[in-house]
Specification:
Elements: H1 13-30, H2 33-40, H3 45-67, H4 73-78, H5 99-108
Length: 119
């Protein structure tokens, strides 16, 4: 179980989800082409701060729904358009594993293998 850095106490599920949302926002959203736009000045620091906050809040909310047994996630995903704010995007490419992230995980955690395949 993950410990809080400030107190050493075990993190609650809510704290774990918050931590995960922040990490996902950084590694899955911020460290993408959006960072290039920001560095070129196409997006101001103030706009980037608002963007980061919105991404983190949205990821945190989705993780909360996914991990909370009080939500009928299976029913939600079974609907063509799901709930008003959790619908499936149309016209998007299917996701692919990011080999760079997987390689970093393998370097840090050698036993880590993506579906028992070498990256």
């Amino acid at each position: 179980m993950k410990k809080r850095q400030d107190t050493g106490a075990t993190m609650t599920q809510d704290e774990l989800l918050s931590d995960l949302a922040l990490r996902m926002a950084l590694h899955c959203v911020r460290n993408t082409i959006i960072e290039e736009y920001h560095s070129r000045g196409s997006i101001s620091d103030a706009e980037m701060k608002v963007f980061n906050k919105e991404v983190v809040n949205n990821l945190y909310t989705c993780l909360h729904v996914i991990m909370n047994p009080n939500y009928d996630l299976e029913g939600l995903l079974a609907q063509e358009y799901g709930a008003a704010h959790f619908y499936m995007p149309h016209g998007w490419d299917a996701p692919e594993l990011n080999k760079s992230i997987l390689k970093r995980l393998q370097t840090r955690f050698p036993p880590f293998e993506e579906n028992n395949q070498s990256v």
